[in-house]
Amino acid sequence: MTGDGRSRTVRDARGTIWEIETIVAPASWATALVNDDWSGLELESADAKACRAWLAAQEHDGWRVIDVASDAEGHPEEPWFSWSADLHGSSWRGAELLTYLRERAASSGPNAVTSSAEQRRDDQEC
Question: Could you state, in order of their start, the residue ranges of all structural domains in the chain?
Answer without folding.
Answer: 7-125
